Amino acid sequence: MPEIPDERLRPRSQVIDRAWRALGPGLEPLSGPDGAPLTRSVKLVVLPLVLRPVLRPDLAGDLLTARAADLAAGLLRADGPRLVATARWFALLKRVRRALKVVGGNPQDLYFQRCYELATEHGAPDGPDAEEVARAAVLEAADQGDRTVSALRGHLADPARARAVASALAAAWESRTPPPPAGPVPKEGTRALADAVLDGCPDGGGGEAFTALVDGGHGGALGSALWGGAASGWGRPGAPAHLGLTAEPVPPPPAVGAGASTTSLPAPLDRSVYERVFTLLRAPGHDGLPPVPELVDAETARACAPLGLTEESLRVALLVGGRLAVGLDPLGTGTGPTAAHRAVDRRWRRESSVSRARRATVDPAADQGPFADLARALRDPWTAYVRRLWARLHGRDAHAVPVSDTAELWALLDGIAYSVLRDHRARVRAVLRSLTAPANDTADASGSAA
């Protein structure tokens, strides 16, 4: 189970896990062997359909206050009978799927949310028509090929469509707002406003500064400045103006693309239209997106927008998140410039389980050893943070979900910070395991030989 980072906050994953287990038997089709909810159960059912963080911003972060944790647990408890009915519908749909010899797609992706709808509409599948309802649901899902990676592949495999998208990309790229002359990014006024947001948002403040950033188009201005190769002005030596959102000096013109892989995606602003749509279709809640042809058109325009985003509050969220990221100091002992920096730094520095390994990463010798990548991640924390934040904002942009206030912004920024920390913790532990593996392997080999 994840460790509780402090006495006031609870990891949302831990709250969900405990509340799920407390629901008792009947959830096995939606659970793993140890009784915990499957990852897809959380992403496709619990979050979007039970907790609904879009409507309850206090449940949107990876860390919850005690009050929010109680709310989340209560929502799961109240929905227990419907979740059990969802599990029974899923077991029935899988049986019907096998009988119909349907093989396309992942059953969890295809049926989890539909089963929740069936449980809402019909209750448990006990009626005489349950099997017929399940049969119709399986056939319906088999016919809906308009929001899948296969549909995307087929759409852009057509040469005429690919040429049309390429032409639209070229036109959109040429019609961009001319970037301002190269200069510091962000400007001093922008940075002061971002710091005001970061100083207030952990306690629900900073609203005026956030509104000023949005109304003033500061996020769009940052994105336009990057097209002109603006110099870094984030206030941290070595931090590029784009903070790792592209591997190039400036964002390149987007391509149409013809394939994508989750293990080798380029930096966000270097992705093709195919790769951008691919990531959206692989994310939870993609059923709420437009069909693939409309989604491709939307991403063609979005790929040519400042920061690769079209909604200004999301661009400002990226700007403020970038300011947070460059000021993080997980290995230091100083005081961060804003309340947000101090809150995140405190969490990093309390990582007792990996503190020794984290200290090893500041040793110059670590640049050549197994901790080399971790050393770079700790010294340059902005890349992992900003890329993960961009991905979250890209999904919100595609679903037309802006950032409405600083409380919602802080839930987003703090959740990303905790997510990056959790990843780093896992990577450190993986390195430590790998360092002990050779000795164990030798012992095992000797035992086998004997």
From TrEMBL:
Organism superkingdom: Bacteria
UniProt region (Disordered), positions on chain: 242-263
The protein, known as: Lantibiotic dehydratase
Naturally occurring in which organism (per UniProt): Nocardiopsis changdeensis
